Amino acid sequence: MTAMINATFIHVAVLRYDTVKEKDVHKFWIRCEEDWLRALRCFTIGVTLFMIVLALVGWVAFKHKVQDLDTSKGISYIIVSSLITVVAVTVLMTVTMRTFRKWSDWLRT
Question: Do 65 and 74 meet the contact criterion of CB atoms below 8 Å apart?
Answer without folding.
Answer: yes
